[in-house]
Each structure stands twice: as C-alpha cells, then as structure tokens.
Amino acid sequence: MGYRIGVVGAGALGLLYAGLLGAKVYTRTAEQADLIGVRGGVTVVQDGRETRVAVQAVPVLEANFERLDLVVFTVKSYQLPDLAEVIREIPVQTPLLFLQNGIGHLEWLESLGHETILVGTCEHGAGKLDGASVEWRGVGRTNWAVFRGNLEAGLRDFLMGQNGFPFVEKSDFEAMLYDKLLINAVVNPLTAVLGVRNGALIHNAFFYEVFEKFGREVADVLMRDERWLERLTGVCEATAMNYSSMATDVMEKRRTEIDSILGAVIRLAKQQGKDALISEILYAQVKGLEGEYLQ
User: CB-based contacts of 174: which residues, under 8 Å, 6+ apart?
Assistant: First the structure.
C-alpha cells in the first residue's frame, strides 16, 4: 500500500525529502506554497538533470494532518518550539520523524504527547535553488531510530524500501545522534568561522592542525571510539566542495544551530567536569558573528 507522508519545512532538505518521497510539503509562507503549485511540484536537480515531482504544498498554519501516516520535520532545531501549536494538531497516533542537527531538541521532544516519535540524521547534501527547486549535491542516507513507541511494520518496510533514497534503522538513537553530532560540532563551527568549504579543513595544513585538536576534544566529550578522526576526515573528503549548513547560514546572515550543536557539547563537558576550551572559543566566535547581523 502507499503511505501518505507530510514534510514540515520547505528549506533545502524539506524540498529534497518532499520531492524524493512524493510527500505533501508544509511551507512557512503562502508565497512558497503558491510557487510550488504554479510550478506543478518540486524540481530536484542532480548532476545537471532536472526531475519535477508533483508535490502538493500547503502553508503550515493551514495544515490538516488528519490523513497522514507519517510527518517528517526538517526545520531547524530552534524553530521547533514555534511549531508547538501546529504539532498539537497532529493526531497523537501519527508517527513523527525529527531530522534536526545536534541533540538540543531531545528534551523538548519529551514534552510531546505523541505515541511514536522517531529521530534521525541526514547524510544527504542539498542546496535550495529557489522556493520550488533543490539541488541534490550528495547522495547519502537517512539514519533513523525510535525515540519513543513503535513503528508499524508496513510503514517501516515502506521507508526501508526507498530505492536510491535509503532509510537505515538504528537500534540506539543516542549513539546515532552522537556520531552525527561529532561531525556537526567540529565541521560546522570551523567552516562557519573560517568561511571555507569542508575540504579546506583537511587540505590546509594550518586548518588541519586546529581541526585535529578540536576533533579530539569533542570526541572525548562525546565518548566516541578511536576511529573518530577517520570518520571526520572521511566526511570532509566526501563533501570537500560543499559548504556546511552553518557556514551557509553565516554567509546568508541567518541564525545558526550553534546552541543545539556545539552548545550541547559544552554542556556535556561541564557535566563531566571536562575542559572544552576550543569548543567554548568557537561557540563564542559563531555567536559573535550572529550578533553582527542579527539585530
């Protein structure tokens, strides 16, 4: 059977997931919903090839979630509290999947009354071209795990059966999120402060020295295994030509997810009685950059 998926958030990832899953997308503005309607759906661009997928778009404040089998949230972590009223309109038996960076949103998820909550990490690279078009810049996978409840077998099979857009189930949501947090906490702030692509962190000897020391500090706080450096360098190599989401946010003068990402690492370090000096310096630098343009 077919499953009805809704995606809340129409940034780069939201458009990508809506386009590749054929999902209904819920936009922040009526203007973007109208644009997707006029264009006849979402256009996914990969290696210069354009694929238009018929997608229905609705402003999120006009949403009716009654007939959906799964709702996926691709908004930034700091935007979730603003959607509290919207989320309360979703039937409690409808599963929710949250794809936010960091771990700062986990405590907030505890307050939701829904029976089944999933959390996930996204390894895809995506760039928003306009309100109805997205470039798929790097093919990865969506890792997901149960945060609360149980996912119905048919829906699980539907997700796991997505050819070319794989969903991978993990048994331990915390380990999954911490593995991704290691990458986000090191790569995102460094590239945001330096204003460079991911590959520069490993190809520039001066940047690499900071990258390695910073990575060691974060890996110690997150208690990752001895392969932490291999994982970090592998990601930078695979995404060498990409700008991280935080670097892009700074360049485009948007609020970043620094609190949910590096702020969470600093809080964990304090709980463990560990020093996290490099983390604290980079956190302050990103917050300082935000302060220059967020008035």
Answer: none
Helix (H) or strand (E) holding 212: helix 205-222
Which of 180, 253, 274, 287 does the annotation list as catalytic?
180
Could you tell me the two tokens for 27?
Answer: 């936009």
| Residues 107 and 166 placed together within one structural domain of the fold | yes
CA distance linking residue 115 with residue 123, whole number of Å:
27
Q: How many domains does the chain have?
A: 2
**Location of structure tokens 């006849």:** 40
Among this protein's residues, is 76 annotated catalytic?
no
Which candidate, 11, 17, 83, places its Cα nearest to that of 55? 17
Range of the domain at 37: 5-171
pTM over 0.90: yes
3-state class of 216 per DSSP? helix
Per-residue pLDDT tens digits for 163-172: 889 999 999 9
218 domain-assigned: yes
Q: What is the pLDDT of residue 122?
A: 94
Residues 120 and 23 in one domain: yes
Phi/psi for 111 (5° steps) reads -80, -10
